[in-house]
């Protein structure tokens, strides 16, 4: 059970004058590392089937697992929070809206051992069967550090993810700045995603959109359940000391389409040069991207596919 847990609740406010909720997660982390866990590690805060929730002005630290997890929720606001965990703490995601709608995450600092913000919607055949998407999610003015992703979509996206806007994000000492990830067997879709005005410094990879991320809960997943990834716009990104600019790896039988990059400059460690992009099974558009991305992204956007998806 999560430390703070609500199921089927409405009109909830969790707030304080930047007081601290300490999950004392190192006991759980050590059991996980040693393989002694008989149960799933708890979240620090989790709401299920709930609505109209505000979480603000609190410091969360050392969660055993994900920190803030609204699942099957609507109308959720998380603002002015600080989330802290050691870089080597396992699965300590900051905020993970999961099969939830109308979520706003803003004005917060997150430094943990896993993705800072990760939008999810269910896992393989179970998420496909339940079929509840994440939609209408805004992430803005968030900064922080992580050995994994700054802003992530997935990899559990079997219920579908759409209409996500992340803007004015500042990332430092990060594994991957922007990571959109799914896998064979996930099914579902990722569409109408916009990432804008992102600054990153000391990143292993700037932008990654991949179809081979994440494991499976069991061997019952359907290998023919291929995800749809369409309408992803990334614009106004500036990176300093970025080891590899980007990787876009679609699926042979479900290529990623309408992937649009605008005004992106990712500097390498020793100067303006950085490792080149790597792409496969992808189509889209690129404009003023340095270093220049892969040939699969056209420099002419005659059909206007990008603008039709980036208006959210």
UniProtKB/TrEMBL annotation:
SUPFAM superfamilies: Pectin lyase-like. Belongs to the glycosyl hydrolase 28 family. It is found in: Secreted, Cell wall. GO terms for molecular function: hydrolase activity, hydrolyzing O-glycosyl compounds. Its main location: secreted. Keywords: Cell wall, Glycosidase, Hydrolase, Secreted. This is Polygalacturonase. It holds the Pfam family Glyco_hydro_28. Gene3D superfamilies: Single-stranded right-handed beta-helix, Pectin lyase-like.
């Amino acid at each position: 059970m999560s430390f703070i847990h609500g199921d089927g609740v409405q009109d909830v406010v969790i707030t304080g004058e930047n007081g601290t909720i300490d999950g004392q997660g190192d006991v759980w982390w050590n059991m996980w590392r040693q393989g002694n866990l008989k149960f799933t590690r708890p979240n620090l805060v989790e709401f299920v089937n709930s609505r109209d929730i505000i979480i603000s002005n609190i410091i969360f630290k050392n969660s055993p697992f994900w920190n803030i997890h609204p699942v099957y929720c609507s109308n959720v606001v998380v603002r002015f929070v600080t989330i802290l965990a050691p870089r080597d703490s396992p699965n300590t995601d900051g905020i993970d809206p999961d099969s939830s709608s109308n979520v706003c995450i803003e004005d917060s600092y997150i430094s943990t051992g896993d993705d800072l913000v990760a939008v999810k919607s269910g896992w393989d055949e179970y998420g496909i069967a339940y079929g509840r998407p994440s939609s209408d999610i805004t992430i803005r003015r968030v900064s922080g550090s992580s050995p994994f992703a700054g802003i992530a979509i997935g990899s559990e996206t079997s219920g579908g993810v759409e209409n996500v806007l992340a803007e004015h994000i500042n990332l430092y000492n990060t594994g991957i700045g922007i990571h959109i990830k799914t896998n064979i067997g996930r099914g579902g879709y990722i569409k109408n995603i916009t990432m804008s005005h992102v600054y990153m410094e000391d990143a292993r990879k700037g932008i990654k959109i991949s179809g081979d991320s994440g494991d499976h809960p069991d061997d019952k997943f359907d290998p023919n359940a291929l995800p749809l990834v369409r309408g992803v716009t990334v614009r106004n990104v500036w990176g300093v000391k970025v080891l590899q600019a980007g990787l876009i790896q679609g699926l042979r039988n479900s290529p990623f389409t309408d992937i649009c990059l605008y005004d992106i400059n990712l500097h390498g460690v020793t100067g303006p040069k950085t490792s080149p992009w790597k792409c496969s099974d992808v189509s889209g558009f690129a404009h003023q991207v340095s270093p220049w991305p892969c040939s699969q992204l056209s420099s002419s956007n005659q059909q206007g596919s990008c603008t039709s998806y980036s208006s959210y």
